[in-house]
Design a protein that fits this description.
Shape of chain B: globular
Number of strands of chain A: 19
Helix content of chain A: 25-40%
Strand order of the largest sheet of chain B: 7-6-5-8-9
Number of strands of chain B: 9
CATH architecture of the largest domain in chain A: Alpha-Beta Barrel
Oligomer: heterodimer
Structural class of chain B: alpha/beta
Largest sheet of chain B: 5 strands, parallel
Largest interface: A-B, 24 and 30 residues
Shape of chain A: globular
Number of domains of chain A: 2
CATH class of the largest domain in chain A: Alpha Beta
Number of helices of chain B: 11
Distance between the termini of chain B: 44 Å
Distance between the termini of chain A: 21 Å
């Protein structure tokens, strides 16, 4: 099967260029860029006419709620939302039900994705400790063999520093990546909003910066101690960006991401107790948001994830402190990325690298690049199409957007996984 | 972005009563004036006016309360409403019924007005957003957010004794962090152009950015009390010792308790208030509480007329002049 994708603006997140070129695919692999290989006869031609071709997005943290919470979402619904929105790779944290701490759950996820999925690549992240309970190490070696790409304790910080140190040591010995969302459970308490004048005015139990930064400082020290390659996820504070920057300067093997919504929203957006703006970590100040953006620009923060957390309607239909945190984010990830380009945060190819090659490299995955010999996970994007964000129109089962009514731009016309068209608008 | 007008209609009239924040000085003054017209009703032998005749008010308390709940009941009764009081913790929510289901079930009983107290900040807004048009919500305390009728009865008390807010110094002493009363009082005092609002508390009981509410912050009671006209003491809940917010009740009283001696630092005619229930010997000395500068019991009786005023303004009738027969 030969496929020619003609005359698109090819966004290359490795070379950091955007050039109008033709792409030649054979049996799912990219075999030539620009000039046709000898005797290439396309079976199919997609005429792109200046639309953008980029690698499929690699989302380093998205919850599909499968297994365990079918009322919120499942692999079928969420991979459908992913490929329709240009995301070809999804990494799912271990806090499914049951937890991803055993090979059976890993196999179940793979099986469901094969049978019900829409051909997005789904990679489970294994639990660092059994049941995420922070006491016993999980069987990391077996989990790795079965396909866990990294290990994390999700949003359940380890209470015991000794266990954390050993978990990091052990994972490191398995050449596995550790993913940590820095969080201090005591400082988090029953908090639900960033500690600021806004939480004070609304009387909302507050989450201080230190709930993230105190944990991060300790975590970084444990990286220094163990040498474990560690990725910090969903950062929200300006001080965290600083700490990551300094730790990188010292040569520690760390990387970091933040959620897309943290680059747009602040605690102001809570307005009058809008439970769709309830997130963990919380939406922070404009100062923090700007620092996260600066972290993206200078590379302190390597990638941007969706931190997708689909919910059923009832989970948000409660007073703010009792609602469940998280945003349904697959449907808006690409459009918000393009908005960052529009706002001139970074040129297109550089920004896209934060959602493709960077997470792919950190997690040791294929994809996320447009290179000869690589599997062709590609998306074709019409950047000119405006649409109004309406949660009710989401493909994701979770309609809980924090961007309701936003005027967004850019829509996916084609999604290819392994050179095969898996979505066409 | 901050749409607080859910409690007002397009003509600026009260639809719900959720928070002092977002209201205007004229509305606050109207509440105080209306309450004044009702004070005469509460002093009569037959204490009823027919303003809410045929209406049903449901008291929905998800948190325990004695005085707020009973003054709301009395207020509704004196306006001739039918009143239904529900201790919700003991019934539906324990059985797993969602908040919205509870509300909708009660709506099906043709309730016109909900008086709601709930432990979540923002719950009053939540209820107001989800009741049917024509049904009103009165906030009787939502988490640590607001307790607007308490603040209005405090304003009523202050105006009763001190007349003009623009020359007053008011000190609020104690646990600001957990106090919905303090938040509502601060907004109300600011709207009524109070000359100076001070909050006096240890750092652990002050939320971040308290100054941004429009107050000056003191960590020392003696400095903070100097020359004030009104002292409002807040209740110190005993569980604060367990959360490592304070070392002991004794040490708290030593630093922040209101004694006769310290009250001397305020103006000689200063009044002492407390939203209740007070802990004698923890935040306030018994002799101050029972002393001649204390107006704590008057606050309670004013509470009835203030709540009558708010309820009658919500049904569109401002006080006795439009209330018809007496």
């Amino acid at each position: 099967m030969n496929l020619l994708i003609r005359d698109g603006l090819v966004v290359d997140p490795v070379a950091l260029t955007s050039r109008r070129l033709d792409l030649y695919l054979e049996n799912g692999k990219l075999i030539a860029i620009g000039a046709p290989p000898d005797a290439f006869k396309p079976d199919q031609t997609i005429d792109v006419d200046g639309q953008w071709i980029m690698p499929g997005l690699v989302d380093c943290q998205a919850r599909l709620r499968d297994p365990g919470q079918p009322e919120k979402a499942n692999i079928e619904s969420e991979t459908g939302a992913a490929i329709k929105n240009g995301i070809t790779t999804l990494c799912i944290p271990p806090d499914t039900q049951p937890v991803i701490d055993n090979s059976a759950t890993v196999e179940l996820i793979h099986h469901r994705n094969e049978v019900y999925g829409h051909q997005a690549r789904v990679y489970p992240i294994g639990a660092l400790t059994r049941g995420l309970d922070g006491e016993q190490l999980s069987n990391m070696a077996s989990l790795k063999v079965n396909g866990c790409i990294a290990f994390s304790n999700a949003t359940r910080p380890l209470a015991n520093n000794l266990v954390q140190r050993r978990a990091m040591d052990y994972a490191s010995g398995q050449q596995s990546l550790v993913i940590i969302q820095p969080l201090d459970a005591d400082l988090l308490g029953d908090g639900c909003a960033h500690e600021s004048a806004i939480a004070t005015r609304l009387g909302l139990p507050a989450i201080p910066e230190a709930a993230e930064t105190a944990a991060l400082a300790k975590d970084i020290e444990l990286v220094a101690q163990t040498g474990a390659r560690t990725h910090f996820g969903q950062l929200s504070c300006a001080r965290s960006v600083d700490m990551i920057r300094r730790a990188k300067t010292k040569g520690l093997p760390i990387t970091a991401d933040c959620a897309m919504h943290q680059l747009f929203l602040t605690d102001h957006d809570i307005g009058h107790f809008d439970s769709n703006k309830l997130t963990l970590p919380p939406l922070r100040s404009q100062y923090d948001r700007d620092a996260l953006r600066q972290g993206i620009v200078d590379g302190s923060i390597d990638c941007i994830c969706s931190d997708h957390q689909p919910h059923e309607v009832d989970a948000k239909l409660r007073p703010f402190p009792s609602a469940e945190p998280g945003i349904s984010a697959l449907d808006t990830l690409l459009a918000l990325a393009l908005r960052l380009v529009e706002e001139e945060l970074l040129p297109l190819a550089e920004l896209i690298s934060k959602l493709t090659i960077n997470p792919a490299k950190i997690l040791g995955l294929e994809g996320g690049r447009i290179e000869i010999g690589e599997p062709a996970d590609l998306i074709i994007v019409d950047p000119g199409i405006h649409w109004i964000c309406r949660g009710t129109e989401f493909i994701s089962k979770g309609k809980n957007t924090a961007f309701e009514g936003w005027d967004l731009q850019g829509q996916v016309n084609y999604t290819l996984v392994d050179g095969k068209v898996v979505y066409q608008r | 972005m901050l749409n607080n007008n859910i409690q007002l209609d397009e003509n600026g009239k009260l639809l719900h009563f959720l928070s002092i924040e977002g209201l205007s000085q004229p509305i606050l003054t109207e509440i105080l004036d209306t309450a004044e017209s009702f004070t005469s009703v509460t002093d009569r032998t037959i204490k009823k006016v027919p303003i809410l005749r045929g209406k049903t008010v449901a008291n929905l308390f998800f948190e325990a309360s004695t005085r707020t709940r009973s003054t709301f009941e009395l207020a509704a009764q004196r306006l001739s409403a039918d009143i239904l009081s529900l201790d919700v913790n003991a019934s539906a929510t324990v059985k797993g019924e969602s908040l919205l289901d509870t509300i909708h079930n009660l709506e099906a009983m043709q309730i016109d007005m909900f008086v709601v107290r709930h432990q979540d900040s923002g719950s009053a807004h939540f209820f107001a957003q989800h009741v049917r048009p024509g049904v009103s919500v009165l906030n009787a305390g939502d988490g640590q957010h607001e307790h607007p009728t308490q603040a209005m009865l405090d304003m009523y008390t202050i105006r009763h004794y001190k007349k003009d807010f623009s020359s007053l110094r008011v000190a609020i002493v104690g646990d600001i962090l957990h106090s919905r009363v303090a938040r509502s009082q601060i907004h109300a005092l600011n709207l009524l152009n109070t000359a100076e609002i001070r909050v006096i508390a240890p750092r652990t009981l002050l939320p971040v950015g308290t100054e941004s509410l429009g107050v000056s912050v003191y960590h020392d009671l003696e400095t903070g009390l100097k020359d004030v006209d009104v002292v409002i003491m807040l209740r110190l809940q005993r569980e604060r010792m367990r959360g490592a917010l304070l070392p002991s009740e004794k040490e708290y009283f030593r630093q922040f308790g209101l004694s006769q001696e310290r009250l001397q630092l305020a103006k000689p005619d200063a009044i002492v208030m407390h939203p209740g229930p007070a802990n004698r010997g923890v935040e306030i000395e018994s002799s101050v509480m029972d002393g001649n500068q204390s107006v704590i019991l008057q606050q309670v009786s004013f509470g009835i007329s203030v709540r009558m005023a708010v309820m009658s303004m919500i049904v569109g009738q401002s006080g006795l002049h439009s209330g018809g027969e007496g």
